[in-house]
Amino acid sequence: RRNDALKLWAAWRRLGDLPNEAVALNNMALAQLALNAPDEAVTLYEQASAAQAAAGDKSRAAAALRDAGNVRYGQNRYTEALSFHQRALSLFAEAGDQNGQAQTLWKMALAAGGAGDWETELSNYAAALDIFRALGDTTNERTTLSLMATVYQFRGKWLDALAIWQQVRAMDQRSGRRDDEALSTYSLALIYDGLGQTTRAREAYQQ
User: pTM score, two decimals?
Assistant: First the structure.
């Protein structure tokens, strides 16, 4: 199967078909991941990105770099992951792909958190939040707020976490999503517990 993939890639390369060459490289990267060969996969993703960039598709070039960053994140190589994601972010910005930028900022936040830099983690989430709000993407806005609240919660910043979970619950109440509202209310109960406000925590648990 690997030989077939190589032959297909070589054929597209001979034809000068950069988009399909990039697709073949991306598929080869996925195959290397399945074979537990992450370093080879990263190299192939970089080659796929270069091919997409040469074809003039900056968004797909950025996506390939983000994929490489995801591999490094999975290896706990957070500095390298951040480097790939930063390169991807620049390309998404050049392409005017706001959703791509926001999704990449999420990845950068995770990598920063893995590296123990929670302030940068939060700033990346905040930047993603601004974009999702500008796009009117309330689903990802809610998810981003929840992630930020969780960071504050893990750091013992109870009041900061409380303020954000209150925003999230207000969104859930407006949307009528009862399951989401139950989760955000439960999260508020945990915060009240952390603050020692047992009565309010009990009320929230009961809700």
Answer: 0.88
